[in-house]
Amino acid sequence: MATTGRILWRMLELRGIDPAPLYKEAGLDPESLDNPRTRYPVKEAILPWRLASELLDDPAFGLSIVKAWQPSDFHALGCAFLASTTLRDALNRLIRYNATVYSMIGYSIDVCDDRAILSYSKQHGVLEEPAILEDTRWAVVLDGCRRIYGADLNPLEVSFWHGEPKSGLEEFLAYFRCPLRFDEPVARMIFPVDVLDRPLPAANRELALTLDHSLSSYLAKLQHNDIVSRTKTAISNNLPSGNATIQAVAATLHMSPRNLQRKLSAEDTTYRKLVDTVRQEMAESYLTQENFTIAEIGYLTGFSSQAAFARAFKRWTGLTPQDFRVAA
Q1: How far, in Å, CA of 141 to CA of 126, rounded?
Q2: Domains of the chain, with CATH numbers?
Q3: Of 171, 181, 293, 323, which is most buried, counting CB atoms within 10 Å of its CB?
Q4: pTM of the entire structure?
């Protein structure tokens, strides 16, 4: 996650601010920003953004990203994005490989009638990002799309998690050039669907595919080393046997329960949260398959009874398992 740190550093320099004291206050070594493989724990990675937000008191600061970032900041992902044959191709690369640069959110895209809806969600833990970090994310996504498609590309709508800024709204409107929604439950950027598949002028399919191979290899290594992913895998493997205790999972990962909790805390999550996440993900997947009864799904996700499973599922989704299955 040093990628966002390097970009913020440049954004601050553009404002005439020396970033070094701020990064030291956040407990980050500025020299490590030059290492493209550096990845910081979530809390440490977000802290300089929060400190910058408090220092500047400028709600539109995140939009200055367009003057500070380059595609190479995102390594192979940025270059593959530029080489994509269509905007759909580029956005799908963002969805597949975003974890190589920032693993705390996951993108998805849905096509509904004449609208293509790009959205993102938190991957795990509680992520309390300052508003300027979310603004920066959407600004760089749109700037990247405009670089490959054309400067006249405008979304139909952009939605933000954070509330409406107290000032600088005209700067947001001037940049995004579309209606904006704030304090929304889902962060979304909506495009006309007909822009997705127009051939892009700078497309290089062979280069993009070569970079895909590099990205896939790097992502596989990250997922193998990522403590959250490894813990979720161990939990899912242990749930059907009813032995998904932290003691059992920690033993699978060759560490003590205390050490596992400490590592998960550094990623801003807990073992209990991951158990719930894995159970919900597994349950929703099984419920889309008619060959599993609801009682069997409860067993496979580690519940002692169908009633206990139903109560937990209602807490997660607001629906009963049967209602979810019908809706799916």
Answers
A1: 23
A2: 62-219 (no CATH), 227-327 (1.10.10.60)
A3: 171
A4: 0.71
The span from the first CA to the last CA of the chain, in angstroms, equals 35
User: For residues 77 and 93, is the Cβ–Cβ distance under 8 A?
Assistant: yes
Residue among 292, 88, 121, 117 at smallest CA distance from 195: 88
CA distance 68 to 73: 10
Chain-centre distance of CA 5, in angstroms? Answer: 16
Measure CA 57 to chain center. 25
Only one residue has tokens 């956040």, namely 26
Q: Does residue 56 contact residue 165 with C-beta atoms inside 8 Å? A: no
> Residue 37 in contact with residue 263, Cβ under 8 Å?
no
Dist. CA 218–CA 253, nearest whole Å: 21
Query: What is the Cα–Cα distance from 27 to 284, expressed in whole angstroms?
Result: 40
Pick from 211, 12, 195, 31: which is nearest to 111 by CA? 195
Q: Provide the percentage of residues in the chain whose pLDDT is more than 70.
A: 94
> What tokens were used for 28?
């980050």
Backbone angles phi, psi at 180, to 5 degrees: -120, 145
Reported in sequence order, the residue ranges of the chain that DSSP labels E, i.e. its strands, are: 105-112, 115-122, 157-159, 180-181, 187-192
Q: Is 267 left (phi over 0), alpha (psi -120 to 50) or beta?
A: alpha
Q: Are 175 and 153 in contact (CB under 8 A)?
A: no
Residues 118 and 188: their CA atoms lie apart, in Å, by 6
C-alpha triplet 142, 143, 149: angle, nearest 5°: 85
Per-residue pLDDT tens for 262-278?
A: 989 888 889 999 999 88
| pLDDT, tens digit, 9 for 90 and up, residues 108-133 | 999 988 999 999 987 654 457 899 99
Q: Is the Cβ–Cβ distance between 160 and 181 less than 8 Å? A: yes
